[in-house]
Amino acid sequence: MLIKTFGSAVQGVNAYTITIEVSVSAGTKYFLVGLPDNAVKEGEQRIESALKQYGYKMPRQKVVINMAPADIRKEGSAYDLTIAMGIVAASGQIASDKLSQYMIMGELSLDGSLRPIKGVLPIAIQARKEGFKGFILPMQNAREAAIVNNLDIIGVENIKQAIEFLDGQRHIEPLIVDTREVFQNSADQYAADFADVQGQENIKRALEIAAAGGHNVIMIGPPGAGKTMLAKRLPSILPPLSMHEALETTKIHSVAGKLGEAGSLLYTRPYRAPHHTISDVALVGGGGIPQPGEISLAHNGVLFLDELPEFKRTVLEVMRQPLEERKVTISRAKTTLDFPANFMLVASMNPCPCGYYNHPEKECVCGSGVVQRYLNKVSGPLLDRIDLHVEVTPVTFDEMTATRKTENSQDIRERVVTARRLQNERFKEVPHIYSNAMMPSQMVKEICEINEAGKALLKTAMERLGLSARAYDRILKVSRTIADLANSEQIRIEHLAEAIQYRSLDREGWAG
C-alpha cells in the first residue's frame, strides 16, 4: 500500500514542502531514499520504539520511504513524526483519509513523546500558502505556529495523540492566538528605559538622532561611563515593529531555534550583544547547515558590539558588505542563501588600552603611539560605515544624585516616530529604502541639498579632518535626520554643524 504524507525542509528563512512516500509490500528490510542525512536515517529506531510504547507495530515487511524531491538534502530529526504517520497508515493500522490535509512535523523520543523543532513559523506560512487544512506538530511549538491564521494548529504531546487524531478517535481543538491583539498590547514593553539614565544628555541626543535615521553609532569613552547601559536602552526609542517586520524577525529566530518553548511572535525589536570572542561564521551566519548569524538575529533591531577593538579583525571586516547591502549571502556548492540583515550597529570602545585617554580627571598611562595603534585595530573602511562617533564622558556626582526627572523612552520615541513618518513619505516611491541611513549616494545629492554657507562649512571640515567621500555622505545623511527631528524642510547650517561634530574619530589630533 502506498501512502503520502507531507513535511517541510527549511532553507535560509523559507520552507519547501517535502512529500514522504511510504510503500509497504511483501518482502523484508527498510529502505529510506531521497537524500536523507544521518539524523533522518537514525529515525527508524526512534519510530519503532515510539510505536511500540503505545501498542502499534513496525511492519515486518518491505518498507520503502522516498523523500521527494530527491535532489534536496533532508536534514534533522523533525521528519520522525511525518515518516511514522506514513508507516502506520501504509501498514493499515489507521485510516489515511486525513493525511493529505495536514503538514506533519516532529522529533520523536524513544518513549513516544515529541520534542520541539526549529523553523516552525516558515513551515506554517508555507503550509497555508499551499492550501493545507492544518499543521500537526509538537505542543511546545504550537504557539509559534498559531501566529499564522487560517491554518488549524494541532499541538500534540506524543505520537499516540497524533495517530488517534488522524484516525478519528480523538478530537483536538486547534490552538488559536489573537496575534494582533497581543501584538498591540505588547509592542512597547521594554525592560530598560532612558528615564533610568542620569546625565549624559549629549549621548541621549546622539542616540535619538541614530534611532530617527537608522544610523550606525560608536561610543568612545572610559570604563564605567555608561556606554553599555545606553546601548541597551536604544531599542526602547526605536519605532515599534510593524506586523510585517515582526513576522520577518520571528521567522529568523524560529529558523535559528531561538524562540524557546513558549515562543510566539516577537513584539519588540531584537537586541543582540555577542561577546568579542565570537567567530566570523557565528556573526554573519553559515556553517555546514547554513544558519543565521548574530547580524541576522539583530534584523530590524540593534547589534551591540562592546569593546570593538577586541573583536578579531576578520570578524569586523566581514560586516562591511552586510552593512551596505542589508543582507548576508551565504554561498555553497549547490545553493546560495540570503539572510536578511537590516540592523543598526551600535559599538563601544575605550579610547586606549588603559581606558583613560582624554579623561577629565584620571591620567592615561599608555605610552607614545599606543593610543593610535589601539584605534587602528578598527579599520578605516568600517569606521566610515558608522555615521555617528560620540565621546562619552563620565557622569559627575551631582548628575548621579540629581532628583530631577529625566525624559523617558516613550517621549523620545514619539519624536523618533514623527521623524520616521517624514522619511516614509519621502521614500514611499523608492523600494527597499525606509530611512535616511539607507539612501544611496545619488539620492543623497538630490535630497540633502545645502546652501552656500553650508557648503563652505562642510568644505572646511572635509579639509581639516581629511574625511573620505563616504564620510561626506554620512554627514549629509545625519544632518538630514537632524533637520527631520526639527521638522525642517531645509538642512540649515546648525544641522550641518551638529552632524560634523559626530565624527570624533576623524578629528585631527584626536589620538595624539
Q: How would you explain this protein's 3D organization?
A:
By secondary structure, the chain is α/β, with parallel strands linked by helices. The chain folds into 2 domains: 2-166, Ribosomal Protein S5, domain 2 (2-Layer Sandwich); 185-506, 3-Layer(aba) Sandwich (Rossmann fold), CATH 3.40.50.300. The chain has 22 helices and 18 strands. The chain has helices at 38-41, 43-53, 80-90, 120-129, 142-145, 159-166, 179-186, 201-213, 227-233, 243-255, 280-284, 294-297, 313-317, 320-325, 370-375, 380-384, 397-400, 409-426, 441-447, 452-465, 469-485, 493-501, and strands at 2-11, 14-25, 30-33, 62-68, 102-104, 107-108, 114-115, 134-138, 152-156, 217-220, 271-272, 285-286, 291-292, 302-305, 327-331, 336-340, 344-349, 388-391. β6 and β7 form a beta hairpin. α8 runs parallel beside α18 (409-426) and α21 crosses α22. The mean pLDDT is 89.
**Overall mean pLDDT score?**
89
Strand content: 15-25%
Global structural class: alpha/beta
Share of helical residues: 25-40%
Number of helices: 22
Number of E-state strands: 18
Under the CATH scheme, which class of the largest domain? Answer: Alpha Beta
The number of distinct structural domains comes to 2
The general outline is: elongated
Sheet with most strands: 5 strands, parallel
Low-confidence stretches: none
Head-to-tail CA distance between termini: 81 Å
According to CATH, the homologous superfamily of the largest domain is P-loop containing nucleotide triphosphate hydrolases
Corresponding CATH architecture of the largest domain: 3-Layer(aba) Sandwich
Largest sheet strand order: 11-14-17-10-18
What kind of assembly state do the chains in view correspond to? single chain
* Rg for CA atoms: 28 Å
CATH topology of the largest domain: Rossmann fold
